[in-house]
Cytochrome b-c1 complex subunit Rieske, mitochondrial
Amino acid sequence: MSQQLTSASTALLRACARQQLPTNVARSAIAAGQQRGVAAKSSFESPFGRSEETDTLKIPNFKKYTSKVSPTTNKVFSYFVAGTMGLGSAVGAKATVQDFLVNMSASADVLAQAKVEVALGAIPEGKNVIIKWRGKPVFIRHRTGSEIEEANNIDIQSLRDPQADEDRVQKPEWLIMLGVCTHLGCVPIGEAGDFGGWFCPCHGSHYDISGRIRKGPAPLNLEVPSYSFPDDDTLVIG
Ligand code: FES
Protein backbone atom coordinates (compact mmCIF):
# COMPACT_ATOMS: atom_id res chain seq x y z
CA MET A 1 0.00 0.00 0.00
CA SER A 2 2.75 2.44 1.01
CA GLN A 3 4.55 1.63 -2.23
CA GLN A 4 1.43 2.50 -4.22
CA LEU A 5 1.09 5.76 -2.33
CA THR A 6 4.72 6.62 -3.02
CA SER A 7 4.25 5.95 -6.74
CA ALA A 8 1.07 8.10 -6.79
CA SER A 9 2.87 10.96 -5.02
CA THR A 10 5.75 10.83 -7.48
CA ALA A 11 3.33 10.88 -10.43
CA LEU A 12 1.47 13.88 -8.91
CA LEU A 13 4.68 15.84 -8.39
CA ARG A 14 5.70 15.18 -11.99
CA ALA A 15 2.28 16.36 -13.21
CA CYS A 16 2.73 19.54 -11.14
CA ALA A 17 6.11 20.12 -12.71
CA ARG A 18 4.71 19.69 -16.20
CA GLN A 19 1.50 21.80 -15.73
CA GLN A 20 3.04 24.45 -13.51
CA LEU A 21 0.73 23.68 -10.56
CA PRO A 22 1.58 25.40 -7.31
CA THR A 23 3.82 23.15 -5.20
CA ASN A 24 1.93 23.77 -1.99
CA VAL A 25 -1.30 22.52 -3.68
CA ALA A 26 0.45 19.30 -4.67
CA ARG A 27 1.90 18.79 -1.21
CA SER A 28 -1.51 19.20 0.42
CA ALA A 29 -3.02 16.71 -2.06
CA ILE A 30 -0.28 14.18 -1.23
CA ALA A 31 -0.81 14.63 2.53
CA ALA A 32 -4.58 14.07 2.12
CA GLY A 33 -3.89 10.94 0.08
CA GLN A 34 -1.53 9.61 2.70
CA GLN A 35 -4.13 10.23 5.43
CA ARG A 36 -6.74 8.33 3.45
CA GLY A 37 -4.23 5.46 3.03
CA VAL A 38 -3.70 5.23 6.81
CA ALA A 39 -7.42 5.38 7.42
CA ALA A 40 -7.99 2.59 4.87
CA LYS A 41 -5.26 0.50 6.44
CA SER A 42 -6.67 0.78 9.91
CA SER A 43 -10.20 -0.20 8.79
CA PHE A 44 -9.04 -3.32 6.78
CA GLU A 45 -10.26 -6.70 7.97
CA SER A 46 -8.73 -9.78 6.39
CA PRO A 47 -11.25 -12.54 5.65
CA PHE A 48 -8.48 -15.18 5.91
CA GLY A 49 -6.75 -14.50 9.17
CA ARG A 50 -6.86 -12.78 12.48
CA SER A 51 -6.89 -9.01 12.77
CA GLU A 52 -5.37 -7.07 15.60
CA GLU A 53 -8.73 -6.41 17.22
CA THR A 54 -10.60 -9.73 16.86
CA ASP A 55 -9.50 -13.35 16.79
CA THR A 56 -11.24 -14.89 13.78
CA LEU A 57 -9.34 -18.21 13.97
CA LYS A 58 -11.90 -20.72 15.25
CA ILE A 59 -10.50 -23.92 16.82
CA PRO A 60 -13.05 -26.76 16.72
CA ASN A 61 -14.20 -27.99 20.06
CA PHE A 62 -13.82 -31.78 20.41
CA LYS A 63 -14.92 -31.91 23.96
CA LYS A 64 -18.13 -33.79 23.24
CA TYR A 65 -16.05 -36.60 21.69
CA THR A 66 -13.73 -37.09 24.65
CA SER A 67 -14.24 -39.98 27.06
CA LYS A 68 -16.22 -39.37 30.21
CA VAL A 69 -14.31 -42.04 32.20
CA SER A 70 -10.81 -41.80 33.62
CA PRO A 71 -7.70 -42.40 31.43
CA THR A 72 -6.74 -45.40 33.58
CA THR A 73 -10.06 -47.09 32.85
CA ASN A 74 -9.58 -46.48 29.15
CA LYS A 75 -6.07 -47.96 29.23
CA VAL A 76 -7.27 -51.07 31.06
CA PHE A 77 -10.04 -51.54 28.50
CA SER A 78 -7.62 -51.08 25.60
CA TYR A 79 -5.16 -53.57 27.07
CA PHE A 80 -7.96 -56.05 27.68
CA VAL A 81 -9.22 -55.82 24.09
CA ALA A 82 -5.69 -56.08 22.64
CA GLY A 83 -4.83 -59.03 24.89
CA THR A 84 -8.06 -60.86 24.07
CA MET A 85 -7.51 -60.42 20.34
CA GLY A 86 -3.90 -61.62 20.65
CA LEU A 87 -5.00 -64.68 22.63
CA GLY A 88 -7.70 -65.49 20.10
CA SER A 89 -5.24 -65.16 17.23
CA ALA A 90 -2.72 -67.44 18.98
CA VAL A 91 -5.37 -70.11 19.61
CA GLY A 92 -6.53 -69.92 15.99
CA ALA A 93 -2.96 -70.19 14.67
CA LYS A 94 -2.24 -73.17 16.93
CA ALA A 95 -5.39 -74.98 15.77
CA THR A 96 -4.52 -74.32 12.12
CA VAL A 97 -0.94 -75.63 12.46
CA GLN A 98 -2.11 -78.61 14.50
CA ASP A 99 -4.75 -79.55 11.91
CA PHE A 100 -2.15 -79.25 9.16
CA LEU A 101 0.36 -81.47 10.97
CA VAL A 102 -2.26 -84.08 11.87
CA ASN A 103 -3.40 -84.12 8.25
CA MET A 104 0.16 -84.58 6.97
CA SER A 105 1.23 -87.25 9.46
CA ALA A 106 0.95 -90.95 8.79
CA SER A 107 -2.43 -92.57 9.33
CA ALA A 108 -3.04 -95.16 12.05
CA ASP A 109 -2.87 -98.13 9.69
CA VAL A 110 0.46 -96.93 8.27
CA LEU A 111 1.88 -96.46 11.77
CA ALA A 112 0.68 -99.92 12.73
CA GLN A 113 2.70 -101.35 9.85
CA ALA A 114 5.84 -99.36 10.60
CA LYS A 115 7.02 -102.15 12.89
CA VAL A 116 5.95 -105.76 12.94
CA GLU A 117 6.52 -108.07 15.87
CA VAL A 118 6.89 -111.78 15.22
CA ALA A 119 6.86 -114.62 17.79
CA LEU A 120 9.75 -116.84 16.71
CA GLY A 121 8.63 -119.79 18.84
CA ALA A 122 5.88 -120.47 16.30
CA ILE A 123 8.35 -121.08 13.45
CA PRO A 124 9.87 -124.57 13.52
CA GLU A 125 13.40 -125.23 12.33
CA GLY A 126 13.73 -125.69 8.58
CA LYS A 127 10.55 -123.72 7.80
CA ASN A 128 9.77 -120.46 6.03
CA VAL A 129 7.26 -117.86 7.08
CA ILE A 130 6.14 -114.91 4.98
CA ILE A 131 4.74 -111.83 6.66
CA LYS A 132 3.64 -108.50 5.26
CA TRP A 133 5.56 -105.40 6.34
CA ARG A 134 4.98 -101.94 4.85
CA GLY A 135 3.17 -103.55 1.94
CA LYS A 136 6.02 -105.89 1.08
CA PRO A 137 6.55 -109.59 1.78
CA VAL A 138 9.26 -110.50 4.28
CA PHE A 139 10.81 -113.97 4.33
CA ILE A 140 11.72 -115.41 7.72
CA ARG A 141 13.70 -118.64 7.54
CA HIS A 142 14.53 -120.73 10.59
CA ARG A 143 17.67 -122.33 9.25
CA THR A 144 19.04 -125.69 10.23
CA GLY A 145 22.64 -126.31 11.19
CA SER A 146 23.41 -127.85 7.81
CA GLU A 147 21.93 -124.85 6.00
CA ILE A 148 24.08 -122.48 8.04
CA GLU A 149 27.14 -124.57 7.21
CA GLU A 150 26.21 -124.60 3.53
CA ALA A 151 25.77 -120.80 3.52
CA ASN A 152 29.26 -120.37 4.93
CA ASN A 153 31.03 -122.86 2.67
CA ILE A 154 30.97 -120.56 -0.32
CA ASP A 155 33.79 -118.70 -2.04
CA ILE A 156 32.45 -115.20 -1.62
CA GLN A 157 34.52 -113.81 -4.48
CA SER A 158 32.76 -116.15 -6.89
CA LEU A 159 29.40 -114.52 -6.15
CA ARG A 160 27.79 -111.88 -8.36
CA ASP A 161 27.04 -109.76 -5.31
CA PRO A 162 29.83 -110.79 -2.89
CA GLN A 163 28.55 -110.89 0.67
CA ALA A 164 29.41 -113.18 3.58
CA ASP A 165 26.54 -114.99 5.27
CA GLU A 166 27.52 -113.53 8.65
CA ASP A 167 27.04 -110.04 7.20
CA ARG A 168 23.43 -110.88 6.31
CA VAL A 169 22.23 -112.25 9.62
CA GLN A 170 22.29 -111.25 13.29
CA LYS A 171 21.69 -114.80 14.49
CA PRO A 172 22.82 -117.59 12.10
CA GLU A 173 19.63 -119.60 12.59
CA TRP A 174 17.36 -116.72 11.60
CA LEU A 175 17.50 -115.36 8.04
CA ILE A 176 15.24 -112.34 7.44
CA MET A 177 14.94 -110.81 3.95
CA LEU A 178 12.56 -108.80 1.80
CA GLY A 179 10.73 -111.17 -0.52
CA VAL A 180 11.23 -109.00 -3.59
CA CYS A 181 13.33 -110.19 -6.49
CA THR A 182 16.09 -107.71 -7.27
CA HIS A 183 15.52 -108.16 -10.98
CA LEU A 184 12.06 -106.74 -11.60
CA GLY A 185 10.32 -107.15 -8.26
CA CYS A 186 8.54 -110.51 -8.40
CA VAL A 187 8.11 -112.58 -5.24
CA PRO A 188 10.45 -115.60 -5.30
CA ILE A 189 9.31 -119.07 -4.25
CA GLY A 190 10.89 -120.60 -1.13
CA GLU A 191 12.67 -123.95 -0.93
CA ALA A 192 13.11 -123.96 -4.68
CA GLY A 193 15.79 -123.37 -7.31
CA ASP A 194 19.16 -124.91 -7.99
CA PHE A 195 20.73 -123.77 -4.73
CA GLY A 196 18.13 -124.83 -2.17
CA GLY A 197 17.05 -121.32 -1.38
CA TRP A 198 14.57 -119.24 -3.39
CA PHE A 199 13.62 -119.25 -7.02
CA CYS A 200 12.01 -116.41 -8.98
CA PRO A 201 9.84 -117.88 -11.75
CA CYS A 202 9.42 -114.59 -13.59
CA HIS A 203 12.81 -114.76 -15.36
CA GLY A 204 14.56 -117.61 -13.60
CA SER A 205 16.72 -116.13 -10.83
CA HIS A 206 18.12 -118.55 -8.26
CA TYR A 207 19.02 -117.50 -4.72
CA ASP A 208 20.91 -119.64 -2.23
CA ILE A 209 20.10 -120.43 1.40
CA SER A 210 21.51 -117.05 2.42
CA GLY A 211 19.39 -115.19 -0.18
CA ARG A 212 22.36 -114.40 -2.41
CA ILE A 213 21.89 -114.37 -6.17
CA ARG A 214 23.59 -117.37 -7.75
CA LYS A 215 22.01 -117.69 -11.18
CA GLY A 216 19.66 -115.79 -13.48
CA PRO A 217 19.23 -112.11 -14.38
CA ALA A 218 18.83 -110.61 -10.88
CA PRO A 219 21.84 -108.37 -10.16
CA LEU A 220 21.80 -108.30 -6.35
CA ASN A 221 21.14 -110.44 -3.30
CA LEU A 222 17.73 -110.28 -1.63
CA GLU A 223 17.62 -107.21 0.57
CA VAL A 224 17.88 -107.53 4.35
CA PRO A 225 15.56 -105.11 6.22
CA SER A 226 16.31 -103.51 9.56
CA TYR A 227 15.24 -105.74 12.44
CA SER A 228 16.07 -106.56 16.02
CA PHE A 229 15.57 -109.25 18.65
CA PRO A 230 14.15 -107.65 21.82
CA ASP A 231 14.36 -111.09 23.45
CA ASP A 232 15.18 -114.66 22.39
CA ASP A 233 11.66 -115.41 21.22
CA THR A 234 10.70 -112.13 19.59
CA LEU A 235 11.64 -110.53 16.30
CA VAL A 236 10.76 -106.90 15.49
CA ILE A 237 11.01 -105.82 11.88
CA GLY A 238 11.29 -102.09 11.19
S1 FES B 1 11.72 -110.58 -11.51
FE1 FES B 1 12.73 -112.21 -10.62
S2 FES B 1 13.92 -112.91 -12.23
FE2 FES B 1 12.95 -111.25 -13.12
User: Anything to note?
Assistant: The first helix runs from residue 2 to 19.
